[in-house]
Amino acid sequence: MSAAIDFNAMDDETFRAEARSFFESEYPAELRFMAGRLSWAESKPWWMKLSKKGWLAPNWPVEHGGMGLDPGKLIIYWEETERAGIGRMPDQGVTMVGPTLIRFGNDAQRAKYLPKILAGENVWCQGYSEPNAGSDLASLRTEAVLDGDEYVINGSKIWTSMAHHATNIYVLVRTDKSVKQQRGISFLLVDMKTPGITFRTIRNIAGHEEFCQVFFDNVRTHKDNLVGKLNEGWTIAKGLLTFERLNIGSPRRPLQAFEQLDTLAHARKLFDDAGFVDRYTQLKMDLNDLGSLYQRYVEKVRRGEALGPDISMLKVFAMDTYQKLAELLLESGAEYGAFAEGVKLEGEAVDLMTPFYTSRPGTIYGGSNEIQRNILSKYVLQLPAA
Amino acid sequence: MTQHDSTEHREMLSNSVTDFARGVDLARVRKLRESRTECDRAVWKQMADLGWLGVLAPEQYGGMGLKLADMAIVAQGLARALVPEPLTAVAVLATRVLADSTNESLKAKLLEALISGDLLPATAWQEEAGTLDVHKINMQATPFEGGFRVNGSKRFVVGASHADGYIVSANSAAGMQLLWIPQDAAGAATQFDALADGRLSGTLNLSNVSVAKENIINSGAAAAGSLARAIDHTAVVASAELCGIMGRSLEITLEYLKTRVQFGKPIGSFQALQHRAVDLYIQQELSGAVLADCLAVLDNEPDDKTRSAAASRAKARCTDAALLITRQSIQMHGAIGFTEDCDVGLYVKRAMTLAAWLGNGNAHRRRYAKTEILEGAN
Ligand SMILES: Cc1cc2nc3c(=O)[nH]c(=O)nc-3n(C[C@H](O)[C@H](O)[C@H](O)COP(=O)(O)OP(=O)(O)OC[C@H]3O[C@@H](n4cnc5c(N)ncnc54)[C@H](O)[C@@H]3O)c2cc1C
Asked: Which fold has domain B122-220?
């Protein structure tokens, strides 16, 4: 690992240039702009390359092996990642587990798990949702009972992204059935190789195997793997969800779809069509405005302020915009808009279908857009309950 | 035909479609992407035996000589069951073009074989994306031994993967030619691109393909007019398919809203989803009303402008409604709607394929604007 460089002291353009040249020269060409997520096997060489340079965890503090980027630099990092077409790796360890352990874990947990994430030894997946606990996550029923020094887990998690590539899973489990739902949930870390864990992969609508159902049959995990206090898992999970919403709300994914739209528009000479220009411009301006809204939250984080429930509006607008873009992309492709694979138009490669499939679940995961609107109406507008 | 006869016919058709649809195995549709058998010739034969391939064809060739509204019943019912066979492309598009032919012996031979299911013709008219104009082509037909020699390339051909021959439009010094080219003609080659629903879009390349005089289907203004009419008629029947798609997708979703429980209640009890469902229902009903209206207009054989305007109204509305309803069907299912196992995904994909065929909403609005709004304004 390189000696700690204070990236935050660099001016934005210098940092951007460095990130760009690194990503462009080092990221494998054959993995650029992939349709689906990257498997662990595909990710690993790049993961290790990032790790070696000390660039794997841009969001972690320097003392834990991260880059310690402030939000402004972090956004530049993400933008350049998108620009270079870098695929989505099984990055839950970096995006979720690291920040959780840094904030809520203890020293022993940090010492045990963080280096293994950086070293590419541990690949994490998120076990929150259950067949009967999706939007109503607090009703989850997978339970953990303390038996000696170990928790014994029984139940099932579903939609667990990349569980088939993961070595570890973090789960929300019920540890007290006698209290209000939210108060009886704990946050546990589990090795995927523990006896009693089985899983089945689930094919998504695009035909890719990206999520799983994970079954727990008397799965034992040591009580040292409890993160935070017993029955405080809900608070931890909620804290992370806010972060996830900021992440999902960033304009970078819609921007990628916009680039496809731009390429398509040139190839099909759509700028001669006033109707198209109007819709294109509207979405372009929506994207710019999304950037402004996003920036507002970034500044808040930068000032060290807590993000409130109003962050939900960012996710709603980002994902609605993303979907509109993907839909316009298909419609503007005319007959090509039904092609399952990418097409070459006037020598330009355009992938019309991938943005459609990647934008679709954006209004479902991380709290659906309906749930975000419920949050906004209840906690921000403070409208009366039904 | 009397009113009584036609009602009876419709009922019969509708019943036979419902029976057939009940037996359809979605597992096959789900596997199309890998199997690439968008047309099972045994199923096709069954469809022929039920009379569906001849609904529109004149009675003297073995068809039923019924109306577009009858054909729409069959198409809508089969689309509900996601039947992948290229019914509309053959029983409407190819059938209309062939029925207009003045080459009596070719017409009789091809139509009879089409109706019996023995011959599957694919109509190859389009060369560039986003146009409904039959004249926007570069396929060249040059005179050769009393017939033609043909060169060029056709895109987006539906049903091409199992076609026994192609109906091809080409330019010649004497205007447009509609030509019959058997699948194994020397110089004809096909290529396929997978579509969203696993069906295939064909590209037909013709290099010095000779077409004998006997295989000229139609020529000149009559050829172009016949093709344009056939395309409009097909677009309206494709709209009926889109109605079938949206109808079933919404049905499945409403059922889910009643049974899926979150927060201790069926999710259909949440007002946000209730209003969404109602908005989708309104789009479905609107589509049905527009479709019925436009079918009646087309069945009255109006002038070209009226016909095209009606076809565009139907295709624009039904396309956009089907896309909206199927996409919202995923949303209201949550994550399970995003899986391959969930049927709504199959409807989303078929809607995308049908939307892009013969002009999507945008293409039809543009055409409508051109003839109904902008020309009138001048
Ligand atoms: C691609 C993808 C990846 C995922 N990855 C993971 C993962 O790695 N780990 C994990 O734990 N989970 C994951 N999830 C699951 C995700 O968090 C859930 O899908 C989400 O919480 C919604 O739950 P559900 O799918 O059960 O839908 P449901 O909760 O059943 O919702 C169905 C529909 O009802 C609506 N609805 C529900 N309640 C209300 C209400 N009160 N008011 C209005 N509308 C309502 C929803 O918005 C939705 O439209 C993933 C999901 C997807 C699609």
From this structure: Butyryl-CoA Dehydrogenase, subunit A; domain 2 (2.40.110)
Residues with a CB atom less than 6 Å from ligand 1:
A 126-129, 134-135, 159-161, 211, 361, 364-365, 368, 370-371, 374; B 260, 262-263, 267, 270, 272-273, 331-332, 334-335, 338
* Alpha carbon distance A172, A359 (integer Å): 27
Instruction: For residue B101, count CB atoms less than 10 angstroms from its CB and return exposed for 0-12, middle for 13-18, buried for 19 or more.
Output: buried
- In a mutational test of the pocket of ligand 1, which residue from B252, B263, B269, B273 has the highest number of ligand atoms less than 8 Å from its CB? B273
Residue B338 has its nearest CB partner, among A204, A335, A340, at A204
Cβ neighbours, 10 Å, residue A4: 13
The pTM of this model reads 0.95
Domains of chain A, earliest start first: 2-89 (1.10.540), 124-232 (2.40.110.10), 249-380 (1.20.140.10)
| Residues of chain B neighbouring A265 (CB-CB closer than 8 A) | none
B202 has a chain A CB within 8 A of its CB: no
The answer to whether the Cβ–Cβ distance between B129 and A335 falls below 8 Å is: yes
User: Which protein residue's CA is at the shortest distance from atom 31 of ligand 1?
Assistant: B334
Say what the ipTM of the complex is. Answer: 0.96
CA distance A356 to B52: 35
Please give the CATH topology (third level) of the domain spanning B3-120. Answer: Butyryl-Coa Dehydrogenase, subunit A; domain 1 (1.10.540)
**What is the per-residue pLDDT across B38-67, written as a single tens digit (0 to 9) for each?**
999 999 999 999 999 999 999 999 999 999
pLDDT per position as a tens digit, B194-226: 999 999 999 999 999 999 999 999 999 999 999
Q: Is B368 on the interface with A (CB under 8 A)?
A: no
CB nearest A334 (choices: B330, B353, B360): B360
Chain A residues touching B194 at Cβ < 8 A: 339-341
Tens-digit pLDDT profile for residues B84-124: 999 999 999 999 999 999 999 999 999 999 999 999 999 99
**A299: contact with B, CB 8 A cutoff:** no
For domain B222-377, which architecture applies? Up-down Bundle (1.20)
B215 and B179 Cβ atoms separated by less than 8 Å: yes
